[in-house]
Design brief:
By secondary structure, the chain is α+β, with helices and mostly antiparallel strands. 28% of the residues lie in helices and 24% in strands. A hairpin with a 2-residue loop joins strand 14 and strand 15. Helix 1 crosses helix 2, helix 1 runs parallel beside helix 5 and helix 3 packs antiparallel against helix 4.
């Protein structure tokens, strides 16, 4: 695994700038997601928006990935490739987006409902997003990687959901994937200690059924082994003065969808500059 690179406050602010470009891009996409639109159309919208904000798409060409967005509908967990199939009423779609500006990456994700979705899937999205904030809350000096994984795992497994093992969060900075690896499962008091200056991409990937996964022949797309839906939410978070500081936001998504939320307030020293 890549080395852990601690960041200065100036570097953290540069990562925040890249992360917020991703946040704003996800907000633009939130307004466009409806039955009939294709993931390829959404991919083009995202690329244009990222470039308009003075950044480069973070995923395009990374490890030879062919697009700007990872688009993973329904039973796809992550790393789905955009295509020309229209989204349908009742689908869910995980959109993972990256941006590179001033030499630093932002990288975060949200799982959207396409029109009305069934209550069981709605609950999967809700619990997965809640688990993300449980994980962020554990990102404090005095805790370890295992404490974060434990918090996420407990919240999801008590609902009977499967926590994906093979795919994990990661450090973030001048490269997309820095150390440490950040699993969404673990034992309290185990793993590396959290240190001020760490910046993490925390990203629960949670399945409604089994935790097991399989990969398509395209070499990218990861699916649940049982064909049940999967949800994925991701934030970028720095450790500052012993506490988690959110660098990304779902504010622009919520603005587009007409959602009011205070879920991020506890993890932000200063109010978000819109």
């Amino acid at each position: 695994m890549a080395a852990i690179v601690l960041k200065t406050q100036e570097e953290i602010e540069l990562i925040r700038e890249s992360a917020l470009i991703v946040s704003k891009t996800l907000g633009v996409l939130a307004s466009e997601i409806k039955p009939g639109i294709t993931t390829l159309e959404l991919d083009r919208i995202a690329e244009t928006h990222i470039r308009d904000l003075g950044a480069e798409p973070g995923f395009l060409g990374l490890y030879d990935f062919p697009n700007t967005l990872c688009m993973s509908p329904n039973a796809q967990v992550v790393h789905g490739i955009p295509n020309s199939d229209p989204l349908q009423e009742g689908d869910i779609i995980s959109i993972d987006c990256g941006a590179l500006k001033n030499g630093f990456y932002g990288d975060h994700a949200y799982t959207f409902a396409v029109g009305e979705i069934d209550p069981l899937t709605e609950k999967l999205l809700q619990i997965t997003k809640e688990s993300l904030y449980r994980g962020i809350d554990a990102f404090r000096v005095g805790n370890r990687i295992g404490d974060m994984g434990f918090a996420i795992q407990q919240h999801c497994e008590k609902e009977g959901y499967g926590v994906v093992r093979e795919l994990v969060g990661h450090g973030l900075g001048k490269t997309m994937h820095e150390g440490p690896e950040v699993p969404n499962y673990g034992k309290r008091g185990r793993g590396k200690k959290f240190i001020d200056g760490m910046v993490l991409a925390i990203e629960p990937m949670i399945n409604r059924g089994t935790h097991r996964i399989k990969q398509l022949k395209d070499g990218w797309t990861i699916l649940t082994a049982d064909g049940q839906p999967s949800a994925h939410f991701e934030h970028n978070v720095a450790l500052v003065d012993g506490n988690p500081e959110l660098l990304s936001t779902f504010h622009y998504i919520y603005e587009a969808l007409g959602i009011t939320s205070e879920e991020e307030n506890a993890f932000r020293k200063h109010p978000l500059k819109a």
